[in-house]
Structures are given as structure tokens and as C-alpha cells.
Amino acid sequence: MAVPPDLAAALIAENFSRDAGGVLRVGGLSVIDLTKEFGTPLFVYDAGTMRRTYRALCAAVTGFAEVDFSVKANPNPAVIRVFHEEGAGAEIASGAEFDAARAAGVPPERILFAGPGKGAADLDRVIAGGIGEIHLENREEMVRVAAAAERHGATVRVALRINPGAAAQGGAMRMGGKPSPFGFDEEAMDAAIDAVEAQAALRLVGLHLFAGTQGLKAETLLGQWAYGLGLAARIARRTGRPLETIDLGGGLGIPYFSGDAALDLGALRAGLPDLIATLRADPGLASARVVLEPGRYLAGPAGLYVARVLAVKESRGSRFVITDGGMHHHLGASGNLGQVVKRDFPLAAVVDGGAAARAATAVVGPLCTPLDMLARAAPLPPLAEGDLVAVLQSGAYGLTASPTGFLSHPLPAEVLVEDGRATAIRHRG
């Protein structure tokens, strides 16, 4: 179903609310009150929205796959803990993320370690900690993992990350079907299998595939997953034993821009019977744990980034709202995190009764660069110094994906709202 043109209003109706005075509320709490307690700029996450999103996705893929959380999307242990309480394991990309997942209560055997540049120190850290699985992405890493395993007297479970052929591409950011630093090229897969098998300290148990990210079409994801099952079957045949894990990656997208269509979970569910039949029919795959590990899809809709208006000015016919928040905290919203064509994230006034006329408004931050722009033409009511604006879809790839040291502004607080209570999960400064 296509998202209505007023994406911000649609997302507020779906995940948050407004009271009779038009004040934006998260989990029943006034955003104005939250900023009085925790200051601005401020990241606010709604645990209830996270839980609903996780449960809906699990229900859609039940019988086919389990759902883990990709920690890179939001590595705050309190956020990881919400998904762990729902049953998720964790996919990590560094030793520090391993520590964050463990601090959130995730057992080490439920943690998968991916990423193209795993160093010796991080490998020692996770192997000593009992990591469940490490995904190999190149020959040097294979040798490094084997050496670390030998140092710790362990046999380490590993999977091969495969850079698939062009048939598996899709999503807003292709991560397969082209030259890539990620994983072994599909055409070199057999040689990589043989090389792993020759390492006594490694046990090849699975496949990792990640063909693209920000996928909004069910048919694209289903096609990628089917392709992944074919690659998994090849690994099982080459090793002569069943696979234990088939990690089909994340890549599930969320609507950021007007006109985006939200991922149709019903269509996703409708396409699974053929994939389930493929799994059951192949002895090399039938007992494998199939894993999806989205991050953005699970955490993104639950977050707001709230900033306070410092000034409003007109410049040569354009309206600018200058705030205390910006790209140093939320690079994605500024359009500088991989966007080729910069478009506005959904952004709303925190107080909006709906009666005032909207005008196209540029919302900018306090940094000394024209790149520091949270919106270029957001349809906003009149705003004045002291008012608040909120960037939606901000629960993923926000603070920790941003250049927080640029111009040395203090870090914002992060707040988790659940059961009518707000808890600071990262303090300001």
C-alpha cells in the first residue's frame, strides 16, 4: 500500500499520537515534557513501537526464518535489550558491539559477527567470549580467525559471506552483483569452501548473504532469499554435510520519502510457501536455522530526533528555521549518508493543531556548513524561537552513524519510553 503524501502525519498516526492540543506524544508522554526533562537536541525511542514491529515481522516469516537484530542500526544496549526480550539474537560488526549485545543480555551463542575488516583484537575478544558464529569475508580474515581460534584452543563456527551474482541484486543500495569489499564473490565460492575446510580450527556451518539494503518490495526480497537458498544448497553439497545456519541478511526498508511504499508484510508472507518447500525438500538445508537480521526496519520507525528552534529568517524568498540539532547527530536526515539525490526525511512540528497554513521550510542546524540541513522544503506551520521540530524514522542510523565530533557540540541525550515512563539511556554531553 502506498504511503500517503503527508508521510510525517501518516507515521505519527501509525507509531505515535497527538493530544487535543496538537502536541506530539510518544508512548503517551508529551514530547514537550520530555525536552523539559532531558533537553534538546534529543533522541526519543518508543519501546512499544519496537516490540510491535518485531512481532509483526516474526509473524510474517514464521515457519521460514527467525529474526535477529542488526546492532549497527542502533547499538545502545537498552535498544538491543528490547529486541532480545522479544526473542532476537544480535548481528554485530565490532568487538564493542559484542560488548553492547552482551550488556543487553544477549547470550554469546546468539551473536553473529559480520563485517569485512575484523581485526585480531576484536577476534580475540569475541572468541574468548564464546561468539556463536563468525562470518568470513576474505582469505586474510579466514587465516586470522583460524589463528585466533588456535590461540584460544577453540573450534570456531564460521559462515561464508557470499557476494552474489547480478541476479540477486535489489534495494536502494546494492550490495551484491558488482565488485565489492564484502564477502567472497560467488564465482570463487567453491575455492573458499575448500580453503575453510582445510583449517582445522574452523567449522563451516553456514552461509551469509546480504544483497542490498532499504528494500521496500516484497518480490525483491523473496527473490534474494530464494537465490540465497540456492547458494546454501551448493555449500552443503560441497562439504557433504547439512548447513546449520542460513543468514539471509537484513535489507528490509522503511519509507523515508513522500511516495515511498511501505514493505507489504502480507505479500512477503504470501511468497514464503515456495521457499519453505525448498528448504524441506533439500536434506542439506532442512535442519538449518534461517536468520533474517534487520536493523533499520525494526528500530527506525520507533525513533524521533527532536530539535529546538533558535531562529527563523527569510533569505531572498526562502524560509529558514535554524535549530540546535543537525547533521552532527543525524547525518542520514541531512542527506549525507549515502544519498545521491538529497530528499527530506519526514519532519513535523512538535505542536501542530492542523489549522495553520503550511509553507515549504528549510530546517537547518547550527554547524558552519551548508550540508547541515535537516529538511529542504518541509511543509511546516509557522514556527518561532523556542518551538520544537521532530525528525521521524530516527531510531536507526542516527547518533552513532553521524560525525558527532564535528564542531564539538555536546552529544544529545537518548531516551527510551515504555509503560508510561521515560528513561535516559545515554546522558547528554
Automatic annotation (TrEMBL):
It comes from the Bacteria. Belongs to the Orn/Lys/Arg decarboxylase class-II family. Residues 58-299 form the Orn/DAP/Arg decarboxylase 2 N-terminal domain. It comes from Methylorubrum rhodesianum. Its cofactor is pyridoxal 5'-phosphate. The keyword Ligase does not apply. Residues 43-395 form the Orn/DAP/Arg decarboxylase 2 C-terminal domain. Gene3D superfamilies: Alanine racemase, Lyase, Ornithine Decarboxylase, Chain A, domain 1. Coiled coil: none annotated. InterPro entries: Ala_racemase/Decarboxylase_C, DAP_deCOOHase_LysA, De-COase2_C, De-COase2_CS, De-COase2_N, Orn/DAP/Arg_de-COase, PLP-binding_barrel. Keywords: Decarboxylase, Lyase, Pyridoxal phosphate. This is Type III PLP-dependent enzyme.
